[in-house]
Sequence to fold (661 residues):
Amino acid sequence: MENSQFVQFASLVMLAIVPYVLASQGTMLAGQTGLFIVSQEGIMLVGASIGFLGAFFSGSLLIGLLVAALSGVLFGLALAYFTTTLKLDQFVIGLAIFFLGLGLSNLMFKLAIGVTLQPPIIPTLKPVAIPILSQIPILGPIVFHQNLLVYFSILLSLFLTYFLYYTSWGLSLRAVGENPKAADSLGVSVVRSRYVTSMLAGALMALAGAYLPMVYTGSFTDGIVNGRGWISIALTFFGGWSPQLIFVGSLFFAGVEILALRSQVLGVGLPHQFLRMIPYLATIFIMLLTYKRVRNPAFLGLNYDRESRTSV
Amino acid sequence: MTEQSLRIRGTGWLSALGRALGPYVAAVVASFAAAGLVLALMGFNVPKAYATILFTSFRSANGIIQTLIKFVPLVLQALAFTIPFKAGKFNIGGEGQLIAGAIGAAAVGIVFAGLPAFLLLPLVLLGGMLAGALWILLPAWLLYRFRINEILTTVLMNFVAFELIDYIATNVWPDPAAGHPTTIPIGAGGYLPLLVQQPPLHAGLVLAILIAAAVYVYTDHTSAGYELIATGANERAARVYGINVRNLFFLSLLLGGAIAGLSGAIEVAGVQHRLIAGIQSNFLLLGLIIGLIAKGNHAAVPFVAFFIAVLEVGASAMQRTLMIPGEMVFIVEAFILLFVLLSDVLRRR
Fold:
């Protein structure tokens, strides 16, 4: 009995890591080239809205995920253009793109669906059991009996670790975020690296958003992201901009989220409002615990000007 | 002085104003054109929509007063952002501080409901300012002591505030007759006096204008304000010069929090007379847009805030009469910001 409760809890945590892993790995990837994105909350909302609408009108969750990813690529492209080509302040542009995403996500939903008392519902992502592996006791049902995006999150984290630390491409990418001038002088294109990572980051964030209606609610509401975008920035700092630690951190944040939810259901004496504060307060507390350990990419948040003589 | 030299100075002043306003006008026109294209493609009546957005505020006494009431929280939220922004810090927690301020004001107004107005009203407003400053104290201290990024901590405190106001309005002083989390009203002594009786316009407008003017004098005409700007322009140079930048960051955030708290207190004392979940509306986002469009220039903030208030009042009228979602106007505002930022690039070249 205790065992099955643990399995149930752990598999819920695995289900809840997806938005954190995707949004934070996207943040990390762009950060490795020095681009600090703060539009997560807005891009996730767009992903949630477009992903929902795509799935609703096509009848296919896969198409919903694809159009969401595409919209994220466009947002990433805009971010890269404003910051890398036009060299505008990354925070200010990030906020402007956040506003745009917030407005667009609500507008598209209202125009396509209208204001209804009973919003339309899409089916949720079904778990896909992996043959043989899902038969392993305890580990099987927790890890190998999940939906495809859970597998994608795990594989993405493994791939990014390999890519960034064991390939020369990854090394050049990290060089762009550490010392763009040096990278540039060795023939690595700073501009192209930033465009590519920014578009990938946008796609991952939009997928993170699209996951929410497809797994949690079945529909889109304007409060659906509920701070997860901001938490994933904190999570990226917590993970020290390394993909493997970000994955571990996602387990922790998803765990806090599920614990807060479960204690509301079970009733632990505290009013539910205070339980719902826990993920945000825990995030601040974690930032306090890890601020010393964190080393950010040296050029994080700064724009690179090839013709400038000073490097920072 | 001869008349001629005065006239030359006059035109110089005018053309400077024109140069400053030019990009803004261009940005507004471009944003409306872009949005108009989308609206036309969707088959809406574009001229009618624009007339509604731009002129609802000026067609009736009610429109003007609605706009002024909206202007108050918008200008205060913008200032809560721009004061730390001048020093290079980002306070994205204005709605959390607004809620905290509203809670503080309501708590004072309910607990001391029997006090006469000359005591209760100042206490209610002060309670709001203190609570707003208190809400930003943790992020400001974490920045001061550990250099922890204030963008994230101020945002996260917003989500904590959403839950706190829900708790207070449903568990501490609930109004059982209301269908939505709402507290009982504050004492009548805590109401802001009315400038206009019908339709009602509260005196928070005077407070907001006074504070906007005081902030302008502080940042643009005092040496303390100059230290703020110098720190924002080049933190390292400011530190070498001997400015205590850590103190400055801390105090600018606290001042921003207090002003955001006051905006919450004014919503309670002037508009709602009680605490209501959702009292923060979308004032934070609009405040950020105003602050960024004005680029932190405190002479411009009140005018931009008034313009955005006009758009917002027009947006709700447009949603009511033409069934065009109000988000359309929010997107126009975001576009205005982007175009204003783009004008910087053009000027650089």
Remarks:
- The beta strands of chain A are 128-129, 145-146.
